[in-house]
């Protein structure tokens, strides 16, 4: 028989007041079991016509300030966030039957933070950030490969590739977390944290 927490949920939900701490614990479990990219998440945004869009990105920063991912600032996701800063992230780890949804307000990270992460990337990835007009129509792939070679000639020093001004990060400051645990017969368990002022309120949801 599974142990339970104080709310009658599986003990993996624990009894923590801060959802960020529970997120870190679940992420640590996912890193042990998930074969590829446990930090992968689906990011949902809406454009100026209230049309939803969702895509996969990688979590690259985590702190009390929020959850950070990096991208081209001219990409559709960035254009959406410039118009509507509210967004939601969803992590789903099938290997451990767990999922976390995080809703919040997104702001751009500082230039210093973006520079530090950009400089930690492989040389080819930094060159790719210069060469790619992310999500724009490409006539033929050879055009992209040609641009990559041109920027490699421009930035020959692998230790000195400046960050493009159109490339940076976004940080989601959470307003709610929902932790989900799968169970047979769809009798799933769900725990939601809602931010109230500077504290968090917990509530159990029906599956």
What is this entry, summarized?
By secondary structure, this protein is α+β, with helices and mostly antiparallel strands.
Describe this entry's structure for a reader.
- This protein has five helices and nine strands; from the N terminus they run αββββαββαααβββ.
- The chain is an alpha+beta fold and 207 residues long.
- It has one domain (11-119, 167-205): Pnp Oxidase, Chain A.
- Strands 1, 2, 3, 4, 5, 6, 7, 8 and 9 form a nine-stranded antiparallel beta sheet that branches.
- Strand 5 and strand 6 (98-108) form a beta hairpin.
- Helix 4 (123-131) packs across helix 5.
- The mean pLDDT is 97.
CATH classification class: Mainly Beta
Order of H and E elements: HEEEEHEEHHHEEE
Here the CATH topology equals Pnp Oxidase, Chain A
How many domains would you count in the coordinates? 1
What portion of residues is helical?
25-40%
Put simply, the count of helices is: 5
Task: Report the count of strand segments.
Answer: 9
Low-confidence parts: none
Percentage of β-strand residues? 35-45%
Largest beta-sheet details? 9 strands, antiparallel
Radius of gyration: 20 Å
CATH architecture: Roll
Shape: elongated
Mean pLDDT: 97
CATH superfamily: Electron Transport, Fmn-binding Protein, Chain A
């Amino acid at each position: 028989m599974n142990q339970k927490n104080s709310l009658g949920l599986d003990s993996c939900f624990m009894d923590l007041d801060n959802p960020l701490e529970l997120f870190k614990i679940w992420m640590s479990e996912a890193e042990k079991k998930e074969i590829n990219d446990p930090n992968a998440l689906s990011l949902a945004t809406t454009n100026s016509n209230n049309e939803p869009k969702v895509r996969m990105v990688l979590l690259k920063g985590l702190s009390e300030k929020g959850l950070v991912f990096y991208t081209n600032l001219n990409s559709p996701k960035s254009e959406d966030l410039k118009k509507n800063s509210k967004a939601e992230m969803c992590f789903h780890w099938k290997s451990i039957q767990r999922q976390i949804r995080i809703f919040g307000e997104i702001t751009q990270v500082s230039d210093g933070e973006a520079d530090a992460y950009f400089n930690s990337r492989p040389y080819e990835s930094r060159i790719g950030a210069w060469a790619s007009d992310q999500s724009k129509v490409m006539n033929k792939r050879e055009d992209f490969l040609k641009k990559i070679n041109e920027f490699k000639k421009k930035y020959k020093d692998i230790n000195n590739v400046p960050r493009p001004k159109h490339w940076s990060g976004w940080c989601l400051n959470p307003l709610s977390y929902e932790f989900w645990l799968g169970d047979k017969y769809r009798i799933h368990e769900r725990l939601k944290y809602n931010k109230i002022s500077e504290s968090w309120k917990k509530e159990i949801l029906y599956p």
